């Protein structure tokens, strides 16, 4: 997983946000990073400040807390896989008993 974005990322994102902001277009961004960390993540405090200024000027910041749905789904798949293997072992044992 990347800890920092490529050097050009801040300028590229700023250009996109500026174009959308000046055209009054809706923009939705999702991130698992805190807003306070964007300067460090994008390696450019000035650009990240400009990006956040435009995004938050007429925007809404929604913060969600809780467990990751991806992790929940992965745990469910693992559990189902284990159960399937146990079921198959049980069937194989039943077949072995029939051979006796």
How would you characterize this protein structure?
- With 100 residues, the protein is mostly helical.
- The chain has two domains: 1-65, no CATH class; 66-100.
- It has four helices and no strands.
- Helix 1 packs parallel to helix 3.
- The N and C termini lie far apart (54 Å).
- The model has no long low-confidence stretch (mean pLDDT 84).
Task: Tell me how many strands there are.
Answer: 0
Terminal residue distance: 54 Å
Radius of gyration: 24 Å
The run of helices and strands is: HHHH
What overall geometry do the principal axes of the alpha carbons give?
elongated
Q: Which percent range fits the helix content? A: 55-70%
> What's the pLDDT, averaged over the residues?
84
**Structural domain count:** 2
Structural class: mainly alpha
Q: SSE layout and pairings?
A:
Elements: H1 9-22, H2 38-42, H3 45-57, H4 69-99
Helix pairs in contact: 1-3
Short précis:
The chain has 100 residues and is mostly helical.
């Amino acid at each position: 997983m990347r800890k920092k974005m490529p050097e050009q990322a801040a300028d590229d994102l700023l250009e996109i946000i500026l174009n959308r902001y000046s055209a009054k277009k809706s923009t939705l961004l999702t991130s698992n990073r805190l807003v306070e960390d964007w300067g460090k993540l994008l390696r450019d405090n000035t650009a990240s400040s400009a990006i956040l200024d435009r995004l938050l000027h007429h925007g809404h910041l929604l913060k969600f807390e809780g467990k990751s749905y991806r992790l929940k789904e992965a745990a469910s798949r693992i559990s189902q896989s284990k159960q399937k293997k146990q079921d198959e072992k049980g069937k194989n044992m039943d077949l072995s008993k029939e051979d006796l």
